[in-house]
């Protein structure tokens, strides 16, 4: 925990971010090193969560627009079924 506080203290003025965002980045950076993996399911376990491999979130970022607003499409997929 001391390492996270120390890294957060150094990141916050550098990035100009809110405390919670800098702390989240510090956790992520430390856990990337400790876990020796960039797999998000592995990192979720190191960050105190659990990844549920049976659900997948797809994010489609396109250049489509509705009027002058960009369209962002997300969908959840569980086994063969998709929920938009």
How would you describe this protein?
- This protein has 84 residues and is of the alpha+beta class.
- The protein has two domains: 2-46, no CATH class; 52-84, no CATH class.
- It has three helices and three strands.
- Strand 1 and strand 2 form a beta hairpin.
- It is flat.
Secondary-structure blueprint of this entry?
Blueprint: H1 2-15, H2 19-35, H3 40-46, E1 55-66, E2 69-78, E3 81-83
Antiparallel strand pairs: 1-2, 2-3
Helix pairs in contact: 1-2
How would you concisely characterize the structure shown here?
By secondary structure, this protein is an alpha+beta fold. The protein contains three helices and three strands, in the order αααβββ.
């Amino acid at each position: 925990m001391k390492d996270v506080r120390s890294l957060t203290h150094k990141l916050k003025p550098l990035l100009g971010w809110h405390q919670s965002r800098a702390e989240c980045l510090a956790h992520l950076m430390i856990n990337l090193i400790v876990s020796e993996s960039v797999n998000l399911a592995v990192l979720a376990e190191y960050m105190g969560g659990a990844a549920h491999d049976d659900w997948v979130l797809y994010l489609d970022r396109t250049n489509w627009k509705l009027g002058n607003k960009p369209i962002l499409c997300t969908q959840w997929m569980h086994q063969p079924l998709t929920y938009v």
